[in-house]
UniProtKB/TrEMBL annotation:
This is Fibronectin type-III domain-containing protein. Coiled coil: none annotated. Residues 107-208 form the Fibronectin type-III domain. Transmembrane segments: none annotated. The lineage of its organism: Eukaryota, Metazoa, Ecdysozoa, Arthropoda, Hexapoda.
Length: 220
């Protein structure tokens, strides 16, 4: 292939499971179709390190936009990603670093998206993470087009922008207002990131929220 996938310091998501381990989702921006340059094109995780030691492990699932590793420990992990086809991989590797639970920064709070239906404009807002020893230097705002909103994983083209740490509102204008767009945010330090927090629902601008009707419960 003629290029490598692009990643960001915050282009991963962590969910903790009931076994005191965590599932790690890795996201990237795919290359342009004309750069695939051959049959059997795919993205591949070629190296995984845990606390600096290489692991013989494969993702539970890999698509053209993300990979999932389930039941991972709380230690730090580094993943190397390449684009490959029938001829072989592109020599340039993309890296995603997932901090250990002890070093990971706190996430932004109350991440909300407001949609302006006729304009293709979204207003994103959030509150800074809870105070910690790790100084937040930037936020990364992610968005991608998808057939359905969260909780479905995004399979569209991932884009992002970095904003300074003193920012709490950011506007994004999308090319097609009729499409569904998912949004996420990460809080970044100089060396690590909280990972992605996805906006779970969309607020429609200038729409009055009706009062909930009275519901009577006779028995439980």
């Amino acid at each position: 292939p003629g290029d490598s996938p692009k990643t960001d310091i915050g282009s991963f998501e962590i969910t903790e499971n009931l076994e005191y381990r965590r599932d790690i989702y890795l996201y990237w921006q795919g290359i342009a179709p004309y750069l695939e340059n051959g049959d059997e094109f795919t993205y591949k995780i070629v190296c995984v390190e845990r606390s600096g030691k290489k692991l013989a492990i494969r993702p539970n699932n890999t698509t053209r936009t993300y990979a999932i590793f389930k039941n991972m420990t709380y230690e730090s992990h580094k993943f190397e990603l390449v684009a490959t086809n029938v001829v072989g991989p592109n020599p340039n590797k993309s890296v995603i670093y997932v901090p250990s639970k002890l070093e990971i920064p706190n996430e932004p709070v109350s991440f909300t998206k407001i949609a302006f239906e006729t304009e293709g404009k979204y207003e994103l807002s959030w509150k800074p993470p809870l105070p910690s020893r790790r100084e937040i230097t930037t936020y990364t705002i992610f968005w991608c087009e998808n057939e359905r909103d969260r909780p479905y994983l995004c399979t569209g083209y991932l884009q992002w922008d970095r904003v300074p740490a003193n920012t709490t509102v950011f506007n994004v204008t999308v090319p097609n207002p009729r499409k569904v767009y998912q949004f996420a945010i990460s809080a970044n330090t100089a060396y690590s990131s909280s990972g992605m927090v996805w906006a779970s629902c969309t607020v429609i601008a200038n729409r009055v929220v009706g009062k909930m009707k009275t519901v009577w419960i006779n028995s439980i």
